[in-house]
Amino acid sequence: MGTSSSSRGSGRDTPLVPPGTDAQPGKPVPPAQPQRFRSFRTSFGRFLKGGDGADLKKSLGHYARTSTGGSSVGPRRYGAVYSSGGDLYDVLSSLGRDGAEAAARGLSKESLHGQPLDVVCQRLADALAPDNADKDRIRAAIDEAMIEVLGEEEFDTDRLDEETVHRIISEYLSQSIFQDIVEEVGGSWANAPDEKRTPDAEAELIELIRVVVDQKLGARMFGNAGINKTAVEGFMREAVTEVWQEWEANDE
């Protein structure tokens, strides 16, 4: 699910908003606090060792407030995620209708319907993932979201009604945040007492993220017919800002 076995996390010199991912390019980014990941990784390490959900929530509070610069800065690091998510919404919505917009991107209904889902995910990722620092994360988020919502059956465009597309976008955003956090835990994953603890901890983390993202994003998307890429991008940015604000309260 995650990337816990391969990532060492960012260092102290890594900017709060990585280059090419800023949702507000040109706006000054404040300097990062020294050792901004220490409290986050320490709390997450305690969660790995003891399994206490309070430590997980505390770690997310540190992550939102200090590691990523708070709710006014942290959500900016997902600019590429928002943009690709808006594109994903447009393509999937089109495939659930006449397919014209998707076909213009080289993703015709005829070429995708009935294909294995992993093949469809790869084609979506090839078309929508940007060529920047978030490329691999966005590709993984698209894969995980499609599989989580649609299962591993052959791709059926008739299943892409409004509710299903909204669920995929919500899961895509959850997976994007999850991938980011898992990578930034870095060496603290070594605190897991055994091999089973790591996937269990990842499962607890993604479920916690899903709950809050579903709440924040769902309130904006579900039942809101006729929205477009621009609206979806804005909804995701607003939702992440509210998620960060909620998590920051765990750090008070």
Helix % is 55-70%
Number of domains: 1
* Oligomeric state of shown chains: single chain
Mean pLDDT: 92
Percent of residues in beta strands? under 5%
What distance separates the N and C termini? 31 Å
Q: Report the strand count.
A: 0
Sketch the major β-sheet.
none
**Radius of gyration computed on alpha carbons:** 18 Å
Q: Globular, elongated, flat, extended or rod-shaped: what is the shape?
A: globular
Contiguous low-pLDDT stretches (5 residues minimum) are: none
Give the helix tally: 10
Structural class: mainly alpha
The string of secondary-structure elements, in order, is HHHHHHHHHH
How does this model look, in words?
The longest helix has 25 residues, at 197-221. The protein has helices at 38-50, 53-67, 79-95, 100-104, 109-112, 117-128, 135-150, 162-185, 197-221, 229-248. The protein is globular. With 252 residues, the chain is mostly helical. It has one domain. Helices cover 60% and strands 0% of the residues. The chain has ten helices and no strands.
